[in-house]
Amino acid sequence: MDHAEVQPQVGDASALAPVGANASPLRRDVAPAAVAVAPAPGRWARFLDGDVWHSFRTSPTAVVAAAVAALCIFCAVFANVIAPHNPFDLATLELGDSMLPPAWMQGGTPKYPLGTDEQGRDVLSALMFGARISLFVGGASVVLSLVIGVGLGLVSGYVGGRIDALIMRICDVMLSFPSILIALLFAGVGHALFPNANDLLAFGVVIVAIALPGWVQYARAVRGSTMVERHKEYVQAARVIGVPPWRIMVRHVLPNVMGPVLVLSTIQVAVAILAEATLSFLGVGVSPTSPSLGTFINEGNKQLFSGAWWLVIFPGATLVLIALSINLFGDWLRDALNPRLR
């Protein structure tokens, strides 16, 4: 049978078909094949493929610091579950087991791996419960400092003028005094005004005492970033279309200045924990009925010359371990979020 040769016409789509042995003319009565489109990766997938996660995986210091900090936080949060004893339950305390050394020393027992104090409390369990209080007070004071400092810094940098000058002069006055001196002054006044305060009020006094000198750094950092952001085009465009100033600050400027602030707050957590330990060691910290690591160090210091070194070394080592791990993780986070170091 003879086959008629197909001649492409001018303007016909078949004229664009490739010429070859396997080429076939395009047909207009057949729909083109659907092209499969890959779904867009989610936020978690983008995070795993990003520079921050790669920097974290390739940094042994960051991995170890994050693991140690996570372990300390886990033990502090779930102390009621994983602690071998409850050091604040008077019914379970045995005065006959007081001042026992660690388990590997002569006279020690595996029941108390890190020994006991003068009241017969297990040191290991007391460290878990004390770390919970130290972490809570340190984290809450940083959050309070963050809220005050970011709010004042945002207003100061965006509004400017006399408000900016007033807020910055207050910052200069706060920076002229040592932060621990301000905390001691406020904590002392608070304990004098509320001598019979309950644990919650005592926590509030210490949190405010630590947060009071801590907001200045956030205010100055946010003010500098806000003064740069307010002259950019997206802020000018929002002003042109009539967006209120408070909405511009909250919805547009604030998300773009929070990066350095979050890094600073991570490092300040360790500083706040050490400040709380200092106040508790000096006797103006949290209530003795809810002792923190600083309180344990203060109590153990009284027994140091009697040979009970474990009452000072273990609480001090725990405090240093928590602060050091958070500081190292904060240093890595600062470098990882710095675009100049990528």
Largest sheet: none
Spatial gap, N to C terminus: 71 Å
Unreliably modeled segments:
1-17
Relevant CATH superfamily: MetI-like
What percentage of residues falls in helices of 4 or more residues?
A: 55-70%
So what's the CATH class?
Mainly Alpha
**Helix and strand element order:** HHHHHHHHHHHHH
| Shape call | globular
Q: What is the mean pLDDT?
A: 81
The percentage of residues in β strands lies in under 5%
The Cα radius of gyration reads: 31 Å
Give an overview of the whole structure.
There is one protein chain. The chain has one domain: MetI-like (MetI-like fold, Orthogonal Bundle), CATH 1.10.3720.10. The protein is built from 13 helices and no strands. The longest helix is centred in the middle third of the chain and has 37 residues. It is globular, with a radius of gyration of 31 Å.
What's the layout of helices and strands?
Layout: H1 43-48, H2 51-57, H3 60-77, H4 79-82, H5 123-159, H6 161-175, H7 179-193, H8 199-211, H9 215-229, H10 233-240, H11 245-281, H12 293-302, H13 310-336
Helix pairs in contact: 3-5, 3-13, 5-6, 5-8, 5-9, 5-11, 5-12, 7-8, 8-11, 9-11, 10-11, 11-12, 11-13, 12-13
Short description:
With 342 residues, the chain is mostly helical. It is 62% helix and 0% strand.
